[in-house]
Design brief:
four-stranded antiparallel beta sheet, 5 helices, elongated, Dynein light chain
Length: 170
């Protein structure tokens, strides 16, 4: 009889623990959805500094976003978007950053290009951006909503994506 009571207590305790964990996971999923929606809204807005820089360059008649110089037009012809879940403004920023790095390299340095893109996006849009650059690679990634771009420049492929970051509860 006593064994049955102890077993019932253990089962009840386990059930309570499962219920507690289930509630926690549900709240975590809900927070992640809310965060993803707010991240999507944030990602579509360019930072204030960039907007001010664009306005200044527009006043001086320099090529920014809209009118591109010949070199930029030529470079843009080489770019092919393979897959994207990213706002066009962010895509253009990735292309522009890639071009700036390419222009400084006599020969392709995949790590350098990947690092430059990651740093640019981490700085501008928050942490957890990842970048893979190469001529041949496979991947299977999970990305945040609105944070995925896979493109090629000639025979070089670039995968840029963002993952969700959840703070650890101690």
């Amino acid at each position: 009889m006593r064994e049955k009571e102890e077993k019932k207590k253990r089962v009840d305790a386990a059930s309570e623990e499962l219920e507690r964990r289930s509630k926690y996971l549900s709240s975590l999923i809900e927070r992640t959805k809310i965060k993803a929606e707010s991240d999507q809204e944030e990602a579509t807005k360019e930072p204030r500094k960039r907007k001010e820089k664009v306005k200044e360059e527009d006043r001086r008649g320099e090529a920014v976003g809209g009118e591109a110089d010949e070199g930029e037009k030529e470079f843009m012809k080489k770019i092919r978007v393979r897959a994207a879940d990213m706002a066009p403004a962010l895509q253009r920023r990735a292309f522009r950053c890639a071009r700036e790095v390419f222009d400084t390299m006599p020969k392709l340095e995949s790590k350098r290009l990947a690092l430059a893109l990651k740093k640019e996006f981490d700085t501008a849009y928050g942490p957890a951006w990842h970048c893979i650059v190469g001529t041949s690679f496979g991947s299977y990634v999970t990305h945040s909503l609105g944070g995925f771009l896979y493109f090629s420049i000639d025979k070089v492929y670039v995968l840029l994506f963002r993952t969700a970051v959840e703070p650890l509860a101690h």
